[in-house]
Amino acid sequence: MELFVFVCATAMIIVGALGVVLRKHPVHAALSLVLTLFGIAVLFVAQHAEFLAAVQVIVYAGAIVVLFLFVIMLLGVDQVENLKTEPLAGQRWVAGLVGVCLLGLLGAAIYTGADSVISRGEGIASNVAGDNPDANIQQLASSIFSDYVMAFEVTSILLVVAVVGTVLLSRRRTAGKS
Amino acid sequence: MFVNQFLILAAILFCIGVYGVIARKNGVMVLMAIELILNAVNLNLIAFSMRNGSVDGQTFALFVIAVAAAEVGVGLSLVLLIYRNRRTISLDDLSEMKG
């Protein structure tokens, strides 16, 4: 059953990712991105990271993809990218070569270190006694608000800076003020 | 289920993302490919957190998602600004900084 879920989610992820990089129409690429993100959320559930799966669906598929679609809409949907023209000679070919070489390197690294990561861990949710359905959320909360509370606060500063920067950048400058 | 499968899947996803970043010329498309790369990293973090029996990897993945949201906001507003000034988002047309 686990293998079946993994294979289905992997098929979703790979098909969606190939759709993101290969589809000409930006809206189709964004919908393929949704497919990939849902597949990753399925894998999160399979790995007992239920809270992260919910965050993945809400933040990525809900917010980020909608942001992408809004920008595509603002820029005009009819701007289909012409995949034939290549101003840089052989750019696509070089990109494919880089991708395959990187995949080979990563695969070699995984193969080399296979025996040290091949075993399955004892699982996370089993650390909290019993089959408490909220075990994952409780563990995550105690980790964030005790061990990583500093990083959490810094993240809030980062988000404030990002929001202010986004508003400042996309504001249309009025004629009266400089 | 073994961790290795997740690592290989994340590697494939990462390489597809790298291909997209290099090959696509549309600015929005490049940002989408960057999302693919960040998701590959998240997959690795979750797999290793499962392997370790610790929840720290999930915490890091949460921070990665927050940073990705901030990055997409700023990046898309930059794309909008470029489009407003240049009437194009093709990255090949932005060659003022060419040496």
Measure the end-to-end span of chain B: 51 Å
Alpha carbon gyration radius of chain B: 17 Å
Portion in strands of chain B: under 5%
CATH names the topology of the largest domain in chain A as Four Helix Bundle (Hemerythrin (Met), subunit A)
Helix content of chain B: over 70%
Oligomer: heterodimer
SSE pattern of chain B: HHH
Query: What structural class should be given to the helix and strand makeup of chain A?
Result: mainly alpha
* Main sheet properties of chain B: none
Query: Total number of helical segments of chain A?
Result: 7
Q: How confident overall, as mean pLDDT of chain B?
A: 87
At the first level of CATH, the class of the largest domain in chain A is Mainly Alpha
The domain tally of chain A reads: 2
In terms of DSSP E residues, the strand content of chain A is under 5%
Identify the CATH architecture of the largest domain in chain A.
Up-down Bundle
Describe the structure.
The complex is a heterodimer of chains A (178) and B (99). Chain A is mainly alpha-helical and 178 residues long. Chain A has helices at 2-22, 26-46, 50-75, 91-112, 114-117, 135-147, 149-170. Chain A folds into 2 domains: 1-79, Four Helix Bundle (Hemerythrin (Met), subunit A), CATH 1.20.120; 124-173. In chain A, α2 (26-46) packs antiparallel against α3 (50-75). The termini of chain A are far apart. With 99 residues, chain B is an all-alpha fold. Chain B has a domain at 25-88. Chain B is built from 3 helices and no strands. Chain B has helices at 3-23, 27-52, 56-86. The longest helix of chain B has 31 residues, at 56-86. The mean pLDDT of chain B is 87. At the A-B interface, α1, α2, α3, α4 and α6 of A face α1, α2 and α3 of B. Chain B: It is a multi-pass membrane protein. Chain B: The chain crosses the membrane at residues 6-22, 29-48, 60-83. Chain B: GO terms for molecular function: oxidoreductase activity, acting on NAD(P)H. Chain B: One of its GO terms (biological process) is ATP synthesis coupled electron transport.
